[in-house]
Amino acid sequence: MTAVSSTGSTLGALQRSRRSHLAWLSVVLSVLACACLLSVSLGTRDVGWADIFAGVTGSTETIAQAVVVVRVPRTVLAVLAGAALGLAGAVMQGVTRNPLADPGILGVNAGAAMAVVIGIAWFGMETLDAFLWTAILGAGLAACFVYAIGSLGRGGATPLKLALAGAATAIASSSFTIAIILPRNDIAGGVRSWQIGGIGGASFDAILPCLPFLVAGLILCLLSARGLNLLALGDDAAAGLGAHVAWARGGAALGAVLLCGATTAICGPIGFVGLVVPHVCRLLVGADHRWLLPFSALTGAILLIGADVIGRIIARPSEMDVGIVTAFIGAPVFIWIVRKRRVRDL
């Protein structure tokens, strides 16, 4: 009777947990839908519902409808970029078992940005396809370099050493990027604007080439959920439970690199989304990556859309780039995480 009662209690707890997760999923999807509507309707010129409907169907008879036509691809890019960065951050935190892991803090975004700037300044790179491949290559090399440096010494790749190696790599990459740009007045203005990180001027012609990379990264990351759950137990325990540790870590990292590289190529290096979002999602659905990863993608999309809308409103009639707004949001959260976790315990 005791075993039966215990089994029934466990099943009941799982069912309640599943219902709670589904309830939160419906809330997050509703918030995302509202954020998309706000993104289309708010800005330098506010747009009414009738003009939104007409603009979405392709009508440009009025200025308001033309504004909607411009904002729709911008909103789509915000959804894709936010989802990519949120998901990549959750995966990186799982791969490194580091609560401070983030594409920006680990130097992945900075590596992608440096590679693109080198391509522009030294090789005359101009096409988006070239930007994409170069950014992904730079992101991958930066990730490998950080992991190699963090693995040196006693204890291997500890969370603290990875965070320090990533911060040093990000600073060095950014400094080298600035050194390349300074003597090149012909490219300095455009590159500096791109380095801030933004989604203004988005178009479907620019978004479409990125989709294969984003879809591939999304699939790899979502498929890595079980492996990340096992890696959270430690490499030895994961191997004992049948996981191929190297493949699990490598596949997840490759997915995150694809997402970061593609996003950086089209938007520039946007920071802190991948840091903030996974921690928020853990409060909602716990640490199970089967739920955490999709929630991180959806919540990342909400955060980036919200940051874009805030940037349009507070700087009227101009705009504040989304990368600046996410930095204002993410920096206090970063400090809170460090104080809560205490760096010596990482």
From TrEMBL:
UniProt-recorded Gene Ontology molecular function terms: transmembrane transporter activity
GO cellular component entries: plasma membrane
Domain of life, per lineage: Bacteria
Membrane topology designation: Multi-pass membrane protein
Gene3D superfamilies for the chain: ABC transporter involved in vitamin B12 uptake, BtuC
Transmembrane annotation, as ranges: 21-42, 75-92, 104-124, 130-150, 162-182, 202-223, 253-280, 292-314, 320-338
Keyword entries, A-Z: Cell membrane, Membrane, Transmembrane, Transmembrane helix, Transport
Chief localisation class: membrane
Membrane among keywords: yes
Subcellular compartments: Cell membrane
PANTHER family linked: FE(3+) DICITRATE TRANSPORT SYSTEM PERMEASE PROTEIN FECC-RELATED, FERRIC ENTEROBACTIN TRANSPORT SYSTEM PERMEASE PROTEIN
Family classification: Belongs to the binding-protein-dependent transport system permease family. FecCD subfamily.
Protein name per UniProt: Iron complex transport system permease protein
Species whose genome carries this gene: Lutimaribacter pacificus
Higher taxonomy: Bacteria, Pseudomonadati, Pseudomonadota, Alphaproteobacteria, Rhodobacterales
